[in-house]
Task: structure prediction
Amino acid sequence: MKDFKRLRARDVMNSPVISVNFETPVREAADLLSSNAISGALVTGRGGEPVGVVSLFDIVSFLAGLDRPAGAPGGFYQYVYPEFDENGDLWEVAIQQTDEKPLAETPVGEIMATSVIAVRPEAPLGEVAALMAKNHIHRVFVRETGAPVGVLSSMDVLRALSKEAKSAGKRGTPAKGLRKARRPAAAASRR
Result:
């Protein structure tokens, strides 16, 4: 395995890129992510061009109602209409659903992140990791001649770093750029 500092995006990217059309229902996107054991997918427009990214977090947040203001239809928010008898006493509380489309049928285009961040295949893995951290994202797409040719996630970066650390451990020296962990003084004194 190459030294971590010598790794490039192309060395650890996954290909082909799994994508969904922006009109794909959330339910189908969730099934696609789950069946492929991935945490996000490229969202494409009518012409196949990248228009966004949908992640597990986007789907779960949407279904939990986290992106809707309190009181908005869907998720945990339902309209409640109290019913009274002829004396004005509260008889029962009826929960009534609105006529909104089912949440699982909402198109991913309505919940996706609209920025698609891409890197060149030759981009150093350290720079890719810095870009992810700076933008608070977990995946970038690897683009060559304008088209996405791969995807690289934060887990892929972690996996590459782990392989380098294990490889260096077999050689008996810490990997370049990595330090051996020091034990806290209390733990060291218990030995």
About this structure: Confidence is low (pLDDT under 50) at residues 68-81, 92-99, 186-191. The beta strands are 19-21, 40-44, 50-55, 79-84, 90-96, 118-119, 139-144, 147-153.
